[in-house]
Amino acid sequence: QSALTQPRSVSGSPGQSVTISCTGTSSDVGDYNYVSWYQQHPGKAPKLMIYDVKQRPSGVPDRFSASKSGITASLTISGLQAEDEADYYCCSYAGSSTYVFGTGTEVTVL
Amino acid sequence: EVQLVESGGDWVQPGGSLRLSCGASGFTFSNHAMTWVRRPPGKGLEWVSSISGDGSGTYYADSVKGRFTISRDNSRNTLYLQMNSLRDDDTAVYFCARRSPPGTYYFDYWGQGTLVTVSS
Description:
- The complex is a heterodimer.
- Chain A is mainly beta.
- Chain A is globular, with a radius of gyration of 13 Å.
- Chain A has no helices and 9 strands.
- Helices cover 0% and strands 44% of the residues of chain A.
- In chain B, the strands form 2 sheets. In chain B, strands 2, 4, 5, 6, 9, 10 and 11 form a 7-stranded mixed sheet that branches. A 4-stranded antiparallel sheet of chain B has the order 1-3-8-7, with no helix packed on it.
- In chain B, a hairpin with a 6-residue loop joins strand 5 (46-51) and strand 6.
- The radius of gyration of chain B is 13 Å and the shape is globular.
- The A-B interface holds A 1, 3, 32, 34, 36, 38, 40, 44-48, 51-52, 57, 87, 89, 91, 93, 96-104 and B 33, 35, 37, 43-47, 50, 52, 57, 59, 61-63, 95, 97, 100, 104-108, 110-113.
């Protein structure tokens, strides 16, 4: 149950795009198409942004997109906005009703 | 409107015990598996434990197995986490989350969290 690996931080100017990677193993990310992404602002509850690798819940802007290849999933934020500044976590189903989260990435809007 | 409200967080000494609660409303509680996730200070989210909708299946992270017990009371729409033999590294904000409908594997609603501090 080792945490998925994410970059500690990424940054971009308003309007730019940033991509966050999430690297797991063949037992989690590589084995299931059940990767989800969560946004967390300081002191707030996490918010679901992406599920099932690339599906967006209603209400999440289409600036957020995601994909997966092998053992690495990715979240891209296009047209970066000030309110996107937050921590982002990937999460993968790991079988037998267990889950593993990523180490988290701090997104900074310059 | 779906709402999840955690309570029970407190300061406790190492080796002590604490029980967290999560009250749910706005949905049919028994239809959803529920989960506890924690975030230690300065660290990332960590899946702690999950329980099936009817309570028959319980699952734990290795870091808490044998010390924590997840349970639910569907008549009271409440999720619990009994934490025993607490350690310093259990210090965290604990969130309860609703797992999406059966056959899916993500958490669509979260509570605001409750702080557990383990320290002497």
